[in-house]
Prior knowledge:
By secondary structure, the protein is of the alpha+beta class. It has a domain at 47-165: minor pseudopilin epsh fold. The chain has two helices and ten strands, in the order H-H-E-E-E-E-E-E-E-E-E-E. It has helices spanning 22-43, 47-72, and strands spanning 76-81, 84-90, 96-98, 107-108, 114-120, 123-124, 131-133, 142-148, 151-157, 163-165. The strands form two sheets. Strands 1, 2, 3, 4 and 7 form a five-stranded antiparallel beta sheet that branches. The N and C termini lie far apart (82 Å). 19% of the residues are buried.
Amino acid sequence: MRKSAPGSTDGPPHGAGFGFTLIELLVVLAIVGIMVGVAAVRLMPDPSRRLKDSAGRLAALLEQAREEALITGSSIGWSHKGTGYAFWQKDETGRWTLDTERVFRARELPPGVRIVAAQADGVPLAGNSRIVFAAQGIGLPFRLTLALAGRRMSVACDGRGAVRLGGLRGQ
Length: 171
């Protein structure tokens, strides 16, 4: 059996080949930092997307309210305050009551989104006014404007019930 001479080693010199150098660690940290930065930018909420989603949701609910009025033979109203909106139905006495059904419950808009203008037949809606979807299916044309962070988007109806989204304007 062969023995090494005293002081000699069969392996690499002490400290060589074990672990990572400082440069290697810094390169890995830089790559991880860049990846986290890219992911954070992609996951940040886009104001344009939030505004489009809010306008699309409102348009779908307005179309559904119109269809519900036609099917049930009972008028449905819609009103707003700057940060939210509600649907109304007429009770047996002919008075408007807040609809509490799951689909037509009162809703708040997402943070920052506001309804900045509402017009029916070209005339601005007053504070307690409602847009009414008549049981006969014919109503006044209307336009609603939603805004967020300098961007605006409209929801419009031609009076016969065709609800459409207007283009995104602003920044």
